[in-house]
Write a structure and sequence with these properties.
Elements lengths: L5 E5 L6 H13 L8 E5 L5 H8 L4 E5 L16 H6 L4 E4 L2 H6 L4 H13 L3 E6 L3 H5 L3 H13 L10 E5 L13 H18 L2 H6 L1 E5 L4 H8 L6 E4 L6 H14 L2
Helix pairs in contact: 1-2, 1-11, 5-7, 7-8, 10-11
The structure holds 1,3-dihydroxyacetonephosphate.
């Protein structure tokens, strides 16, 4: 089964509106864009509109980095699914480990965000991944099972096409410590088996699972070349057009 690659840049809390325009123009100029890959950039909420405009009719698709689950109301500081869509997002990231660590995100709130985003036809990148202590304690698979099952509770099989999972081991994020390709592939295979158990083997075979955690041009090819690794969710390296494009090119080479 060949799954379309996804190369996504999570900009985190970086880039003003002007910087967003500059980075997108720089990516466009490098000539790495292609419709063979789902290319996604996730700027801060404030720059979503500018990013969508700068992307124009290229293959760049815009994602928000988070979303609340209610449509509107007294929820100071929150942004609803329809609002991010109106601002130009076609995708949203939910459950990033930084949100779990610093902002009280739980499996239950990830699930609510996922369902609310799907309800307005947003595509969703659901992040899962273990902390260093959990890996060292031999709990990696248990954590991935819990997070995956929790995220997908009540999500119908018909919606799965809209969802991508990102495996991001927390100990590899922003640390320069990448999971080895073997570690990534093993974790992805485990997540895929969990999706098969929750849904069907066919649904699991179609599910795209991205690796995230210190992905950079020199390690991209080896990681994305693995059977169960269907692309990358890139933090730091997505802030440089040359590096982001180099990962897209590396991904394409593995799937040529
Ligand atoms: P880095 O690529 O900077 O390690 O970040 C990974 C990440 O958290 C992407 O969501």
């Amino acid at each position: 089964m060949s799954r379309k690659l996804v190369i996504a840049g999570n900009w985190k809390m970086n880039n003003t509106i002007d910087q967003t325009r500059e980075l997108i123009h720089a990516i466009k100029k490098r000539g790495c864009l292609t419709h063979k890959v789902d290319i996604v950039v996730a700027p801060p909420f404030t720059a979503l509109r500018a990013a969508a405009k700068a992307a124009g009719d290229t293959s760049i698709q815009v994602a928000a980095q988070n979303v609340f689950w209610e449509e509107s109301g007294a929820y100071t500081g929150e942004v609803s699914p329809i609002m991010i869509k109106e601002a130009g997002a076609k995708w949203v990231i939910v459950g990033h480990s930084e949100r779990r660590q610093y902002f009280g995100e739980t499996d239950e709130t990830v699930n609510r965000r996922l369902k609310a985003a799907l309800a307005v036809d947003l595509k969703v990148i659901v992040c899962v991944g273990e902390m260093l202590e959990e890996r060292e304690a031999g709990q990696t698979f248990a954590v991935l099972d819990r997070q995956t099952t929790g995220a997908f509770t009540g999500v119908g099989a018909a919606d799965l096409e809209q969802v991508v999972i990102a495996y991001e081991p927390v100990w590899a994020i922003g640390t320069g410590k990448t999971a080895t390709a073997d570690q990534a592939d093993e974790a992805h295979a485990h997540i895929r088996a969990r999706v098969a158990a929750l849904y069907t083997p066919e649904a699991a075979a179609a599910m795209r699972i991205l690796y995230g955690g210190s992905v950079k041009p020199p390690n991209a090819k080896e990681l994305i070349g693995r059977e169960h690794v269907d692309g990358a969710l890139i933090g730091g390296a997505s802030l440089k057009a040359a590096d982001f494009c180099a990962v897209i090119t590396a991904g394409l080479e593995t799937h040529a």
